């Protein structure tokens, strides 16, 4: 058994009243399986209707959700007599456009600091639906901002898309101010997944062994296809052949991060000699 699995078996989830009861056994429960997606193209809508039966619509969303009754979607499910043909066409288009809407929310739901996109307000989404879609989409979920801030970077200092055919350097004037740790992770822009590489490196961060800093506390990280020379391999992030983006995770960020006072490193393309 791996150390992680061994650790997991040491945890239990129980009511507070049962905290000190060594005989407590959690009741066995299972959720009903989701409906099959089907072949009519509206699988998402059918599954949404199914989960609404077990998940009440919050009061703050009642007015917005009420509009879906026109296409037959209510808290009781999806009316099989709906949607009619024009509505069906609209729903199919909405399902195709949905991911694009989430990505476009970067412009309306984030602030840009030195070329990085910051999603703020993560402790209180409320009815900011574009922000909720953004965090569920490009950000792949996340914690509250006092637990972690995760600025995203997809362009270099010149505004060009980050791409594996170029080499980049990030100059950090100092160690990112956190009370926990920080990490820089690279994702493929096409599928938002980690990029396989021969050295099995998927992040750089505060746990870099032997991270060397200059006398003023600054250091550089290198993002490129080939391993850099001059003993810089420990500060190197391998890139894919195509476009990618970066996430700088700052766990338990200090006040200078939360207020915007901390200046994020620029992403400079390295001119090849």
Features:
19% strand; 13 strands; alpha+beta; globular; Jelly Rolls; four-stranded mixed beta sheet; 273 residues; single chain
Summarize the structure.
This protein has six helices and 13 strands.
Class by helix and strand content?
Answer: alpha+beta
What is the chains' assembly state?
Answer: single chain
Span of the ends, CA to CA = 50 Å
* CATH fold descriptor of the domain at 117-269: Jelly Rolls
Task: Enumerate the spans where pLDDT stays under 50 for 5 or more consecutive residues.
Answer: none
**What is the CATH class name of the domain at 117-269?**
Mainly Beta
Kindly state the number of beta strands.
Answer: 13
Q: State the helicity in percent bands.
A: 10-25%
**Judging by the overall fold, what is the CATH architecture of the domain at 117-269?**
Sandwich
